[in-house]
Amino acid sequence: MTLVEQMNGILNPRSVAVIGASNNPEKMGYMCVQSMVESGFPGGVYPVNPNLTELFNLKVYPTLSAVPGEVDLAIITIPAQQTLPVIEECVAKGIKGAVMITSGFRELGTDVGMELQKQLRETANRGSMKIIGPNCLGMINPRARVNATFRPEYALTKIGGVSLAAQSGGMITAIILALDAQDIGISKAFSMGNRCNLDFDEIVAYLGEDEDTKVIALYIEGVDEPRRLLSVASEVTKRKPIIVLKGGRDQQLNPATLSHTGALAGKYEFYKAAFSQAGILVVESITELADVAGALALQPSAAGDRVAIFSIQAGPSIVMGDACHRLGLKLAQFAPATRQTLRRLGSPLVRLDNPVDIAGTGNDRAACREMMRVVLEDDGVDAISVITVADSPLNDAIADVAHHRKPITVCLFTPLGSAPLDKFAGIQVPAYPTPEQAVNGLAGLVRYGAIRRSKG
Amino acid sequence: MTLVEQMNGILNPRSVAVIGASNNPEKMGYMCVQSMVESGFPGGVYPVNPNLTELFNLKVYPTLSAVPGEVDLAIITIPAQQTLPVIEECVAKGIKGAVMITSGFRELGTDVGMELQKQLRETANRGSMKIIGPNCLGMINPRARVNATFRPEYALTKIGGVSLAAQSGGMITAIILALDAQDIGISKAFSMGNRCNLDFDEIVAYLGEDEDTKVIALYIEGVDEPRRLLSVASEVTKRKPIIVLKGGRDQQLNPATLSHTGALAGKYEFYKAAFSQAGILVVESITELADVAGALALQPSAAGDRVAIFSIQAGPSIVMGDACHRLGLKLAQFAPATRQTLRRLGSPLVRLDNPVDIAGTGNDRAACREMMRVVLEDDGVDAISVITVADSPLNDAIADVAHHRKPITVCLFTPLGSAPLDKFAGIQVPAYPTPEQAVNGLAGLVRYGAIRRSKG
After folding, report:
1. CATH number for domain B1-136, candidates 3.40.50.720, 3.30.360.10, 3.40.630.190, 3.90.280.10
2. Is the bond preceding residue B13 a cis peptide, omega within 30 degrees?
3. What whole-number distance in Å separates Cα of residue A403 and Cα of residue A410?
4. pLDDT in tens, B159-198
């Protein structure tokens, strides 16, 4: 069985056992069963606890061995000291992988914790089983309705093209929320925890092969074998983008990362240079990660760094131009023929050079469409960003040109009291609440375009 | 009449005339009447148009002179060429100020436009009348239910402590939306347009005296008399913070700012240095402006730059530490007594140095409160930021310590599918969706604290 086959089995299980199921709503073992039940998982869910008979209308089994038929995935919430025999039982049952929520291993920084994790790894490796965790939030695959976490609300995770792996359950939450705010969905998400025998390099290799994953986003504090990850990433970034947010850059903070998931954070500048060398996009904040991931999930990468700005409002277009400048993007110079067409179609009262002030024509869908089309066809333009408001005919014009080979991002101002507009998600155009964020997205498309070209 | 008295009269008018009122819903003259009616303005609203008799159930007057009684504010939407006699009529009527939405003046860059604006200014000055604009979105004062703009949805603007003045109506919109997303309200907002005879220096002087204004936020592309603004700002920043977002930093963009509101943007570094010298906080994006303004509107400034982090999740606290590092804030070193108390109250399983991992104690309100209190009382700590989730007892503990003399900001993760929590607005604690934004807010409180100390 290849890694991809094994991971596909874990992520699309026929059935799932929850070892350490509990009837106490404050316990992980309760929440994990609830998560699988409420996610609408179509396969079998088997709670395991010798002291219970029923939970969420499901039969509870005394042991894993007592569960009938095959089980592909185990979710484990029992105390650390009891995990070793359970992993042996998992191996005997032929389980492909376990999500181990339990903590109390390497992250303790004690010899006992280190030793226990080592034994766990050896046992799992002997049985060709993969352990996600221990000391983690779990894993989700919303397409398969798998919510193997102790957070039932992940049943509501939108399905999309961004896959996540994070050395922190809290960061999985933070990134999913930031993507959700922009209507961007998830393919798979992994809380990596202590990375017992499943590390970032294998996750990246798997996600590189996963067709539903358009973009890989990682939150990394430190890795034990950076070369393995960099080598895999160098290959994968030829096909799809990888974004990294590196946590723990302040030397003073490093003890925090050690006690967190057992990895001492390395020097930021070293990581940043090595990641960039491998073709990974390094971002500086959760918001930038979500902005870039959303753009790369929906739009083609750019063939160059020359940006055209269209705006229904002049001030925000100036702020957008400033953001381009700050992120190293150039404002495109239009060809004379482009300028002529803009003058013919646009309002005589406003500026029709880049940024293009579309204010006078914003109510004329056909004119807006033609103005954007002529700019998109201009050889001096690599990408465009458009500033619009929720009720404008300009939005229909954006839909008309949305499937151009050159990328588009949008800054959408939604009036006070209005519901957010879902029009742009339908046409695969990322829409952001500020001009700066729309440029973050565009910069990601420009940066990844340069990476692909550099890799031939 | 002092400037403050005059501005108070304009912002809290007894009655308002809309000159150029229209029954065509696509015209500014229609939207402006709608804005005043829907805002629930308690005083008189007098539409003026010789060809209409009724609009929104209001009597329409043929001329301003025909309006009975006193009028404090005129909203003008008639074409530019007709404005001069109307301003004379306003002066004759004793109107204190006009919001002139009309465009077609200095921003055209033509001699005719320049000359018309000059005559407007001379006429208004002779009559001791102030003109907001021309070529602007208008002005709002939500406390007085005045929405003197062509955007009726500003009736929904939340009342708060941030006052805005922007050289762009679109940026007024962008900033109000960014503040609203964080539940931060507005005191006054001015779209400055071409600044006929009311410029940033006078607005800042007025807002410096306005008790409802806790923070002044400006979007500036360029000013004609920077020294006047800097001189006023130097005084006002002794009492309340001023934040500036400077638009048009890219030299290539400057033509855009000229055609926008008639100001050629100056060199960014010059502006930035001069603003900082005057005690103004310069920010780099709309989001940062809203983050900083929200914190300054609700929390005291900090006595130093040593930050303590509390978090219910380890990963995001590491990202928060990184954000502190990037913004030049220090992670506080706790005193031995503080460490002892944290060890006594906190979970033995987690890290209790800065950042403090509160995970093990997050369900114990009293323990959380005592842990935060002992840290707030530590002489080595100037400010704290707390990462929490919507349903945690930690939030009650934050409320318990919220009125400490040291500032607090919060990063609040709201689970998917949950409504945003309004608990923090009630206790005057700014709550942000990401750790980085919570640090933006804290950094604003630290920077303004340093400014106040430098001014004695």
Report:
1. 3.40.50.720
2. no
3. 14
4. 999 999 999 999 999 999 999 999 999 999 999 999 999 9
The tokens describing B408, both together, are: 């607090």
> How many Å lie between the alpha carbon of A23 and the closest alpha carbon of chain B?
19
Q: From CA B11, how far away is CA B138, in angstroms rounded?
A: 11
Q: How far apart are CA B156 and CA B137, in angstroms?
A: 16
Instruction: Locate B370 and state its tokens.
Output: 């005592």
Helix (H) or strand (E) holding A452: helix A435-454
Peptide bond into A62 cis (omega under 30): no
Nearest CA in chain B to A158: B416
Structure tokens at B449: 């604290």
- For residue B333, how far is the Cα from the chain centroid? 34
B316 touches chain A (CB under 8 A): yes
The pLDDT value given to residue B250: 63
What part of A 185-224 touches B (C-beta under 8 Å)? 219, 221
Using a 10 angstrom Cβ sphere, with 0-12 exposed, 13-18 middle and 19 or more buried, the burial of residue B137 is buried
Specify the residue for token string 């102790």: A150
Q: Domain A300-443: which topology?
A: Rossmann fold (3.40.50)
- In angstroms, what separates the C-alpha of A234 from chain B's closest C-alpha? 26
Q: Within B346-455, where are the H helices?
A: 365-377, 394-401, 423-426, 435-454
**pLDDT tens string A49-64:** 999 999 999 999 999 9
Closest alpha carbon to A447 in A331, A292, A323, A310: A292
Measure the CA–CA gap between B400 and B369, rounded to whole angstroms.
7
Q: Cβ(A163)–Cβ(A207) under 8 Å?
A: yes
Please indicate if any CB of chain B lies within 8 Å of the CB of A152: no
In angstroms, the separation between the Cα of residue A208 and the nearest Cα of chain B is 25
Six token digits for residue B297: 């509107």
Question: Which residue bears the tokens 């954000």?
Answer: B323
CB B48 within 8 A of CB B73: no
Find tokens 């002179």 and name the residue: B65
- 3-state secondary structure (DSSP) of residue B159: strand
Strand partners, A250: none
Domain ranges of chain A: 1-136, 157-298, 300-443
Residue B126 burial by Cβ neighbours in a 10 Å radius (0-12, 13-18, 19+): exposed
Domain B1-136 shares a fold with domain B300-443: yes
- Residue ranges of alpha helices (H) inside B182-285 are 200-209, 226-236, 254-261, 268-277
Tell me the pTM: 0.94
Closest CA to A177 of B414, B387, B315, B359: B414
The Cα A393–Cα A368 span in angstroms is 8
Q: Does domain A157-298 have CATH number 2.60.120.380?
A: no
Question: pLDDT tier at A263 (50, 70, 90 boundaries)?
Answer: low
Strand-pair partners of A45 = A16
Yes or no, beta carbons of B169 and A315 under 8 Å apart = yes
- In DSSP notation, A43-96 reads SEEEEE-TT-SEETTEEPBSSSTTS-S---EEEE-S-GGGHHHHHHHHHHHT--
- Kindly tell me if the per-residue pLDDT of A449 is higher than 60: yes
CB of B190 within 8 A of CB of B166?
yes
